[in-house]
Amino acid sequence: MKIAIISPNKTHLQDIGRVLEAQAHTVLLLDGGKSRMRAIAEQEQPDLMLVDGMCCDPHELIQVEYVTTHHPKIAVILLCSSQTPEFLINAMRAGVREVLPSPVTPDALTAAISRIAAKFMGLRTKIPGKILAFIACKGGSGATFLATNLGYQLAETNSVLLIDLNLQFGDALSFVHDGKPPSSLADVAHGISRLDASFLAASSVKISARYSILAAPDDPSSAMEIKPEHVDEILNLAATQYDFVLLDLNRTLDTLTLKALDHAYRIFPVLQAGLPSLRNARKLQLIFKSLGYPPEKVEWIVNRFEKTGDISLDSIQRTLGVSRLRTLPNDYREVNTAVNQGNALAVLNRSSAASKSLAEFALSLSPSPRVEESRSLLDRLLRRA
Predict the structure, then answer these.
(1) How far apart are CA 163 and CA 184, in angstroms?
(2) φ, ψ for residue 180, nearest 5 deg
């Protein structure tokens, strides 16, 4: 790691430098105080800053908070000769990773650097989660039901966060939970300067062990404060923390929705086998084309499909010019019961037609290890044959 050490004490500088250089880190020794943090962050862009000589004055944390806010990839460790519980709390709120005594012992310093290095390696090696966007072609198509219940199924083997981006009328949480959210997407946007994994998790409602939902704001006026750049930062972070990030989108293609669609690994427009829905699907398809989205980024879902309906699957495929459509059966009674009870369909009736279809959908997005092992074995057998 590239480590910048700032201290007014030249002896401390040399001692810390020797310890870290022995561990093969790139070390910058900088004589001075906390006032140099901002310039060093911008000019040197180190992975880690060690700042010596801090006292218990909370006003000294202003420089620290500037660095952690404007340069979130730089970790900060403070070295303090005296520490109070209040200062430690304020330091953590300012984004400090660790607070160590000054002068620091080689063992304590090495242990702290190792912890931060492990986090850096974890961020660099982790495969980003997939962002899946759900958008209704027409009101009442069932996009929110599909997104929330697919999230529940995916969370049986993956970590999942669903973000309700229907800012004016979003109610995704109510489909699988009957409580009121402690905070919402608007609260996260308002506190975007301190956005990190713990803040994001704390702002979301935990539906199951691996499934959380970040609710849309209740207040329309607070929804107006959410900007595309907020969505950008939230999605960038969420993809590093969850295997799947599901987006329940508004049908209005404003700049915020377009920002979310740009992030999506796959877009799932949801329609029903009716002429108005199909017309809107065609319009949406033309918009996707004008945005430069490749065909493989979009997978169409026909919800509540009945083989005996007036419009056949072949007709829908010809209209949209696609070779494959995903369908979910019309299971109105079971789905309606689940929605009215504010519970996932898989909890109420795992054997229902819609629940089985959603389980297959989840499996196609994230095959279980046993399925992958079975396929590999089958492939080997076929090659031998």
Answers:
(1) 10
(2) -100, 135
